[in-house]
Write a structure and sequence with these properties.
- The complex is a heterodimer of chains A (162) and B (105).
- Chain A is an alpha+beta fold and 162 residues long.
- Chain A is built from 6 helices and 7 strands.
- In chain A, strand 2 and strand 3 form a beta hairpin.
- Chain A is globular.
- The N and C termini of chain A lie far apart (39 Å).
- Chain B has 105 residues and is mostly helical.
- Chain B has 5 helices and 2 strands, in the order H-H-H-H-E-E-H.
- A two-stranded antiparallel sheet of chain B has the order 1-2.
- The radius of gyration of chain B is 19 Å and the shape is elongated.
- The termini of chain B are far apart.
- The relative contact order of chain B is 0.14.
- The chains are: A alpha+beta (162), B mainly alpha (105).
- At the A-B interface, strand 1, strand 7 and helix 6 of A face helix 5 of B.
Chain lengths: 162, 105
C-alpha cells in the first residue's frame, strides 16, 4: 500500500436465506426499518438513481434530519451486486467529508446459504469510517451490528433485542 | 460455513491474534507486508491466515495483481452477542443486586 489515506472496510456474514431475500432486506424500506439502525432505505434502483436513508424515530429524537444519509446508485445487478455512494448529512464532521462508496456483494455459497460482503470505501472520510466501524460511543455498533441483526432477522423472523 | 468453534480455535493462538491486531491497525495488507512483521516463514504466515480466513475473521480481496487481507469483525460481534453480553449482563446485575442488598442492611 503506497497510500495511507485509502481506507476500505470489509464486513462479511453468512446468512441462511436466499440471495433474493438478502437483496430485498437491503433495498426495501419495509425491511431496512426492521434491523440495524432501523433507518428505512429508499432506493431508485437504476444507475444514477437516488438513495435516501431516512432517520428512525430514535434518530429524529436526537435532532437527526428526515434524510439522514444521501447517496446515488452506481450499479444495480439484482440479487448479486449493488454499488452506491453513501454520505451522512447529519453531524458537521461526517457531512463535511466526501461521499463514501458502498458495495454489497451477495453470493449463494451453498443451497439456501448466502454470503453477504459489504465493502465500504471510506477514503478521506475518517469520521464516517469510525461511525460505520462502530467506534463512536452511543452511535450504534456499525456494520458488525447491522449485519448480525440482519442475519438474525432473516433467519428467525425477529431482529435482535436492543 | 464459519461457526463459533472455528472462531474460538482461530483466536486461541497468539500469532493469529497478532495478525488480527496488525489488520486492525491497518487493513488491506498483502501477505508480504504481514510476513515482514513476523519472525516466521512465509508458509507459516500463510497457514495462520488460512485458519483466520476459514473462521471468517479475515477476508481476502484482489486488487489488481495483489491479494489484500482485511479484518472482518462480524464473527467477533456475533460471539459477543451470543456469549459475552449474556454473561456480563447477568454478572453485572447480580453484583448490583448484591451491593444494594448489603448496603440496605
Amino acid at each position: 500500500m503506497t497510500s495511507t489515506t485509502r481506507t476500505v472496510q470489509v464486513h462479511r456474514i453468512y446468512i441462511q436465506a436466499t440471495p433474493e431475500a438478502v437483496w430485498t432486506a437491503i433495498t426495501n424500506p419495509e425491511w431496512s426499518e426492521r434491523y440495524g439502525y432501523r433507518s428505512p432505505a429508499h432506493y431508485e434502483l437504476r444507475p444514477g438513481g437516488r438513495y435516501q436513508g431516512l432517520a428512525s424515530a430514535e434518530m429524529k429524537a436526537t435532532g437527526v434530519p428526515e434524510v439522514a444519509v444521501e447517496g446515488e446508485v452506481v450499479e444495480v445487478d439484482p440479487p448479486r451486486r449493488l454499488v452506491q455512494t453513501w454520505h451522512p448529512v447529519w453531524g458537521p464532521e461526517a457531512a463535511a467529508e466526501p461521499a463514501t462508496r458502498l458495495t454489497y456483494e451477495i453470493e449463494e455459497t451453498a443451497p439456501g446459504v448466502t454470503r453477504l460482503t459489504v465493502v465500504h470505501d471510506v477514503t478521506d472520510a475518517p469520521s464516517v469510517a469510525a461511525l460505520v466501524a462502530g467506534e463512536v460511543p452511543n452511535a450504534g455498533g456499525g456494520w458488525s451490528e447491522v449485519l448480525s441483526d440482519l442475519k438474525t432477522l432473516l433467519e428467525s423472523g425477529k431482529p435482535l433485542a436492543c | 460455513m464459519p461457526d463459533d468453534d472455528l472462531v474460538f480455535k482461530a483466536l486461541a493462538d497468539p500469532t493469529r491474534r497478532f495478525l488480527l491486531d496488525l489488520l486492525f491497525a491497518r487493513d488491506g495488507r498483502t501477505l508480504t507486508e504481514l510476513e515482514s512483521e513476523l519472525a516466521m516463514t512465509r508458509f507459516g504466515v500463510m497457514k495462520h491466515l488460512r485458519v483466520l480466513e476459514e473462521a471468517g475473521l479475515v477476508v481476502t480481496r484482489r486488487s489488481g495483481r495483489e491479494k489484500l487481507h482485511f479484518l472482518n469483525p462480524v464473527p467477533i460481534h456475533q460471539i459477543h452477542d451470543r456469549w459475552i453480553d449474556k454473561y456480563t449482563a447477568h454478572h453485572a446485575s447480580a453484583l448490583v443486586d448484591l451491593k444494594t442488598e448489603l448496603e440496605d442492611r
